[in-house]
Amino acid sequence: MYRAVAVARPLQRTLVRRVSTSFNSHGGGGSMLEGYTPPTTSPANDMIAQLAAKHLDRLSLKDLIRFGRPPLTAQSLLTSARITREYLPVRLSRRIRALRNLPYIIVSNPNISKIYNNYIESLTAILAFPANSLTNLTEESKFTELLTEIVKTHSNTIPVLAKGFLECRGYTTPEEATKFLDHHLRARIGTRLMAEQHIGLHLASVPQPPTIDVPGESYIGTVDTELRPAEIIDSCASFVGDICELRYGARPKLTIDGNPDIMFPYIPVHLEYIITELLKNAFRATIEANTPVPITVTIAAAPGPPDAGGITIRIRDQGGGIAPEDFCHIWSYSFSTFNGSRSSIGSGNSGHLDDLCDVGTDGGDDVMSRFTESAGALETSSIAGLGYGLPMSRAYAEYFGGSLKVQSAYGWGTDVYLRLKGVGLDGL
Ligand SMILES: Nc1ncnc2c1ncn2[C@@H]1O[C@H](COP(=O)(O)OP(=O)(O)OP(=O)(O)O)[C@@H](O)[C@H]1O
Ligand SMILES: [Mg+2]
């Protein structure tokens, strides 16, 4: 099945590789960017400021499916490319502006400046692609190759940013770090989606060599109009079960009830990301509590069209719940209780987030070693440790008007409610 790329996870990491292979093998192995001169100078500061100040509409699921089902006509594909060429620089400039607004000591951290340079590089490359050349499919293909490179450049952003912020934990408070990261990572969802949407539309509209995975017929770019949440839950459970086996030598049981047959138009990589993170938490709690009680995932569809009520997915575990003193930290980036540590970005400085939630601080080295295990494990996948799972999942859920809520019965277990709105498919 076709998978776009939202985050660097093994389950979700295939499209960019496939697209790159596609482009590199096209035309007998030569790059389609032949004749394209990479830019040597970065955009001037005032140009970044001007672009960042431009109006930007919020991306909606409706926007993503506005061209209808692929294959798109050449005209529609070119329109999609032009819109992406126009608005991606605005989004990239806003990220650059936000990074520049961080205190100098933070921006000059090697990890954070690496992310900053990636944005500058991507903006430079896209601005060097002449917007008025997008009048034929050869140029559109070159542009799609460039988008693919840009998506690839940014695929490892989260662990690098996380490491940078941990290294800067003495120079920022948890609230400031979480505020920046939340804003930045939410905006990044839209930037990435914009590029991936055009790549997906291109793959489904322009003939591809047989070796290339193209989106299935139910896809409109990154949106699967016939997404079955139960299938995603099954595949994520199998993946998370494998990680558990590696880490703990055991795999909790999981049952799906409610309405497992429903179909729902949504972006599979987003749902996959969220479900993987929520199952990692539930599996870990279940194993650490040493309970044989299965995790129950209930799928419920609200009456009416998917863009009205949408769906609710409840993940229920009996893994002992979350201690009250930890509960108020669970939405902070970097807060984790993995490996016995209880820590958050900035804890080396302030030691607590608020009066109700006075967390004992780790020594910095403990936090870093937890990070090293977890971030290194982003490649091989780890059960927990980075402290990004819940806040990032909520960011994905809220991006298109959904929500993520956690309820804990400490001493018993945890219920997580994921609500997602779909998009009406009338007229498609
Ligand atoms: N189902 C659950 N049962 C018990 N504790 C939970 C559960 N879900 C989350 N938590 C608590 O919330 C903390 C933060 O969760 P979060 O998913 O954000 O980070 P993490 O799991 O530690 O690391 P990762 O970034 O790998 O997800 C966890 O460390 C854990 O203490
Ligand atoms: Mg987690």
Automatic annotation (TrEMBL):
Residues 268-424 form the Histidine kinase domain. InterPro entries: AK/P_DHK_N_sf (IPR036784), BCDHK/PDK_N (IPR018955), BCKD/PDK (IPR039028), HATPase_C_sf (IPR036890), HATPase_dom (IPR003594), His_kinase_dom (IPR005467), Sig_transdc_His_kin-like_C (IPR004358). It is found in: Mitochondrion matrix. The keyword Magnesium does not apply. SMART domains: HATPase_c. The keyword Ribonucleoprotein does not apply. Its EC number is 2.7.11.-. Keywords: ATP-binding, Kinase, Mitochondrion, Nucleotide-binding, Phosphoprotein, Transferase, Transit peptide. One of its GO terms (molecular function) is ATP binding. One of its GO terms (biological process) is regulation of glucose metabolic process. Its main location: mitochondrion. GO terms for cellular component: mitochondrial matrix. Transmembrane segments: none annotated. It is an enzyme of class 2 (transferase). It comes from the Eukaryota. Belongs to the PDK/BCKDK protein kinase family. This is Protein-serine/threonine kinase. It comes from Choiromyces venosus 120613-1.
